[in-house]
Design a protein that fits this description.
The structure holds 2 protein chains of 2 kinds. Chain A is an alpha+beta fold. In chain A, 58% of the residues lie in helices and 15% in strands. Chain A is elongated. Classes of the chains: A alpha+beta, B mainly alpha.
Chain lengths: 178, 100
């Protein structure tokens, strides 16, 4: 591989690291390279195990390997859910309690509780005691989450299925906030 | 003139079967949506609702076949269709009362 090709591979890799979840056309637009060249470098990076891809609808999304370790796929699943995204945005804005989240999103506390458990299990959100309340903060690099959110968003089908799940979640009785 | 004559000829079979087809298609969309919701969340109660939507589509399909082809025994079909309605309601009930 010559120096120019090598530097282009590095540019593509750096772009994916800075903007995880970007797709081919976005990379083309940002780096002003031809489609064929980018595809070549992406294949190379995938073969080298430096990036991974995930097909979602019409696009293939690229991620730097090891960014979220084992949980990578689960985190993408979470970001594909409308409510989980909203919860993450609220947590990024302030350190909310579960009641703050319920009042802001206006969904049942059972539903919020279920989402919070999942986010905590994946290490995306941390729980902190504040008197008799629990407050939540983001557990992984906010920059990466924002970048993923910008690039990887739910389609209408996932939004609807998410709302259907919310409907069933709201029918469940759940322990109230501590 | 020709169009209105044609419309009268295909009606009521066309409209009725069109509506039935629409209901079956809609039930299948709801079934697929619930399966996606289950795959994303792994909440088992959604599976009960998904089964109910699928059963609803099957019930309408059996009912249409019975109406248009009429080769099935009316008495037995009637019982099967009623049992399916009961099963659909039971499945929705379980989906509501089941914890997760």
């Amino acid at each position: 591989m010559n120096d120019e090709s090598n530097s282009n591979t590095i540019r593509v890799l750096q772009h994916i690291q800075e903007s995880p979840g970007c797709h081919l056309r976005q990379i083309k637009r940002e780096l002003a390279m031809s489609m064929g060249t980018i595809q070549y470098h992406l294949n190379l990076l995938e073969k080298q195990g430096k990036v991974s891809s995930e097909r979602h609808n019409l696009h293939k999304y690229y991620f730097p390997v090891g960014l979220f370790e084992q949980n990578e796929k689960d985190i993408l699943k979470i970001l594909n859910q409308e409510t989980a995204r909203e919860i993450l945005l609220i947590i990024m804005e302030k350190k909310p309690t579960q009641t703050d989240i319920v009042n802001t999103i206006k969904i049942s506390s059972a539903s919020v509780n279920w989402h919070m458990k999942r986010l905590i299990e994946l290490g995306m959100v941390l729980e902190q005691k504040d008197g008799k309340f629990k407050r939540y903060t983001i557990g992984i690099d906010t920059k990466h989450i924002v970048s993923l959110m910008k690039n990887y968003h739910p389609n209408i089908w996932n939004r609807w299925s998410d709302r259907l799940a919310e409907m069933f979640l709201s029918l469940s009785k759940e322990d109230k906030e501590q | 003139m020709i169009l209105s004559k044609l419309f009268l000829e295909i009606e009521p079979f066309g409209i009725e079967s069109g509506i039935e087809l629409g209901i079956v298609a809609f039930a299948l969309v709801l079934f697929a949506l619930s399966i996606t919701a289950y795959r994303n969340t792994r909440i088992k109660k959604i599976l009960f609702a998904a089964t109910a939507f699928a059963l609803f589509a099957i019930q309408l399909f059996v009912d249409s076949i019975e109406d248009y082809l009429g080769f099935l025994d009316e008495g037995i079909t009637g019982i099967i269709l009623k049992l399916m309605t009961f099963a659909i309601l039971v499945l929705f009930f379980v989906a509501i009362v089941k914890k997760r």
